[in-house]
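User: Hi! I have a protein structure encoded as tokens and I'd like to know what sequence might fold into it. I'm fairly new to this, so please keep things simple.
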């Protein structure tokens, strides 16, 4: 008689009561997270395999189907039975070479369920099998498919992943549309969950019961990116970005899919404080990565968006030797590590958006001496940050990539900002015969391209900051030289004014895009009104909020994005940008409501200083936070940069008070935020 599978979770241990390989458990299979907070149940019946999730015994995800559909083979979806179950428990801590904290705890219970076709049908694929693996943390979970090497499955073309998410409760969702022309660069929509159509992930929601859930994916390698497509009330299905021929994924057994992830918390700050996405990625593959250098940078960039400089050659060309030296001198004077230079290489003249094949990644314009500038920067303790814009012409870039990184290594470049400016679905791929195919930024081709870039760059000790990228799925753990990326509407939209980013935008990002990983948002604009350059556009924040962004929107490489002369007009406010680190020993979200307000504190990895950033939407707010993160018994100097009493993003954005007070861990700290405002604080031990 077959034994019924049962589990006992006790403390940090997980014990499975005997299931042999030839046993077939009767009924559903369940497992709980280490603290018995989340649980998953797998059920296999004639109509298919489903999973469901509950929290404290209350349903979160109702029975939702699992499976894969193939182009030339029967789907792995029905007629399946559980043939084997394995469980394990892991509680470990691993070092993060750079990031939001120095160490990450990885504590989960794992349930691996083997499923095999049992129906009697003729054909070569009879008896195929696969495994579904669930890892349950107290603050979320991840699950994926694992297809082993077997006679029934060889090279395959996946046409659909059938993974469903049937949410039990109604919810309000914050989301951006998937599979649209502007990639991930949309303002977030706030709608009932039932009004979502197709959404990129992370998609974040708050249920009617107050539970906060964010759905995303982790470890996106050799696979297509996932969007969430609504197919019924509160019911979504995984929708993979297709190749140009319509196939979603081209692979062969053995293979694994990315993890499908759900972060689940009582409060919005609980989502930020989760390390789920990082933990579901593989450990560092690069070995010694001491050459990966977090830090702050300035650059020849903002002037192009203000239309006072150009990427292309001509009378207002930004990337000249003379102008670059000016930025290097500024960086050296004020303690910045890098100078980004865009528009230095041939290919920018004319309609560069549509002529990506003309880019050379080794030939500078005549007015730019790359080698001499590399030496000039090194003599002043600064590095040039390289730039590779492809206009989506990826094959052209890959053909030059090795030579381009070799050149950069020679002149001392350690970081490269890559760019893929092209409409969604218009990435240019050429086959060996020169035929052109158009792919998606989040399709399998680009997932594999970005990995090739990282591997090639690592050979030359170069880190990558990808713009117009594929979304972040935590691969910085596996490839620590993927130091940052874009993947949302950044600061440049404020210069474009079509429209700019509203005050609520940066109060949404921490609970959506930022859950996936660092973003190169490019904060720090001090000339908020562009009265000379673009009087019809502006930045919809106060000056204090621009400082708060350095703490709230995490990146290991933060840009002081404005023009040097604008900083030298406000050196008192500029001091915070000079002081704030980009590499942290600890990070904690203290307050937050999606789209309304957020407060985050971070501890410097190289000192005893803590930093606080708090910001709001277009409503002023009074908040307070306990300072119990500070060391007890120590008095701290709090250097405070806060909105003035008359500050308002629209009518009085520059009103700011800079003051210093003494505090201890026993204090409660008041935070007053003007409409569209923010606060930035540095806590330094008094002795």
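Assistant: Happy to help. Inverse folding works backwards from shape to sequence: for each of the 687 positions I chose a residue that suits the local structure. Here it is:
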């Amino acid at each position: 008689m077959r034994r019924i599978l049962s589990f006992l979770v006790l403390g940090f241990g997980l014990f499975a009561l005997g299931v042999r390989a030839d046993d077939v458990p009767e009924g559903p299979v369940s497992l709980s997270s280490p603290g018995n907070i989340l649980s998953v149940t797998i059920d296999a019946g004639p109509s298919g395999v489903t999973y469901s999730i509950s929290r404290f015994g209350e349903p979160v995800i109702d029975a939702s189907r699992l499976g894969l559909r193939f182009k030339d083979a029967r789907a792995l979806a029905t007629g399946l039975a559980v043939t084997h179950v394995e469980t394990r428990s892991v509680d470990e801590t691993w070092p993060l070479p750079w990031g939001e904290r120095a160490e990450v705890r990885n504590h989960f219970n794992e349930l691996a369920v083997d499923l095999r076709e049992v129906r009697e049908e003729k054909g070569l694929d009879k008896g195929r099998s696969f495994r579904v693996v669930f890892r349950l943390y107290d603050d979320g979970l991840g699950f994926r498919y694992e297809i082993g090497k077997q006679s029934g499955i060889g090279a395959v073309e996946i046409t659909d992943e059938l993974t469903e998410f049937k949410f039990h409760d109604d919810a309000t969702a914050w989301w951006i549309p998937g599979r649209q022309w502007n990639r991930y660069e949309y303002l977030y929509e706030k709608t009932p969950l039932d009004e979502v159509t197709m959404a990129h992930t992370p998609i974040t929601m708050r249920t009617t019961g107050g539970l906060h859930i964010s759905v995303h994916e982790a470890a996106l390698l050799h696979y297509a990116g996932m969007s969430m497509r609504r197919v019924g009330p509160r019911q979504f299905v995984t929708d993979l970005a297709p190749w140009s021929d319509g196939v979603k994924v081209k692979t062969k057994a053995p293979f694994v899919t990315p993890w499908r992830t759900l972060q689940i918390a009582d409060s919005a700050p609980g989502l930020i404080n989760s390390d789920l996405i990082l933990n579901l990625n593989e450990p560092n593959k690069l070995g010694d990565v001491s050459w990966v250098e977090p830090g702050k940078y300035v650059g020849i960039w903002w002037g192009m968006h203000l239309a006072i400089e150009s990427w292309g050659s001509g009378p207002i060309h930004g990337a000249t030797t003379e102008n670059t030296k000016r930025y290097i001198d500024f960086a050296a004077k004020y303690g910045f590590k890098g100078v980004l230079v865009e528009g230095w290489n041939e290919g920018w003249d004319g309609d560069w958006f549509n002529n990506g094949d003309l880019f050379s990644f080794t030939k500078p314009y005549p007015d730019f001496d790359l080698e001499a500038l590399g030496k000039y920067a090194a003599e002043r303790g600064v590095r040039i940050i390289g730039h590779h814009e492809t206009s989506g012409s990826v094959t052209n870039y890959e053909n030059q990539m090795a030579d381009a990184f070799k050149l950069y290594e020679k002149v001392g470049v350690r970081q490269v900002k890559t760019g893929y400016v092209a409409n969604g679905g218009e990435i240019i791929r050429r086959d060996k015969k020169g035929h052109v195919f158009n792919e998606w930024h989040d399709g399998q081709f680009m997932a594999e391209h970005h990995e090739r870039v990282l591997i090639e760059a690592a050979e030359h000790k170069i880190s990558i900051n990808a713009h117009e990228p594929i979304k972040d799925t935590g691969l910085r753990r596996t490839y620590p030289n993927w130091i940052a990326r874009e993947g949302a509407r950044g600061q440049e939209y404020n210069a474009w004014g079509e429209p700019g980013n509203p005050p609520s935008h940066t109060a949404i990002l921490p609970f959506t895009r930022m859950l996936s990983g660092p973003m190169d948002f490019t904060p720090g604009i001090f000339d908020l009104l562009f009265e000379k350059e673009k009087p019809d556009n502006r930045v919809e924040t106060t000056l204090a909020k621009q400082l708060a962004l350095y703490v709230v929107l995490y990146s290991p490489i933060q840009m002081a994005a404005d023009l040097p002369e604008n900083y030298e007009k406000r050196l008192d406010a500029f001091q915070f940008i000079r002081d704030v680190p980009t590499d942290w020993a600890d990070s904690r979200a203290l307050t937050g409501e999606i789209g309304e307000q957020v407060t985050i504190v971070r501890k410097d990895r190289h000192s005893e200083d803590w930093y606080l950033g708090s910001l709001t939407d277009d409503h002023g707010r009074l908040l307070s936070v306990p300072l119990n993160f500070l060391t007890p018994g120590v008095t701290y100097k709090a250097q405070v940069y806060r909105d003035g009493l008359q500050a308002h993003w629209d009518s009085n954005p520059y009103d700011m008070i800079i003051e210093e007070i003494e505090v201890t861990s026993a204090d409660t700290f008041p935070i007053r935020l003007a409409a569209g405002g923010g606060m930035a604080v540095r806590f330094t031990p008094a002795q």
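A useful reference point when you look it over: The CA atoms of residues 232 and 464 lie 40 Å apart. Feel free to ask if any position seems puzzling.
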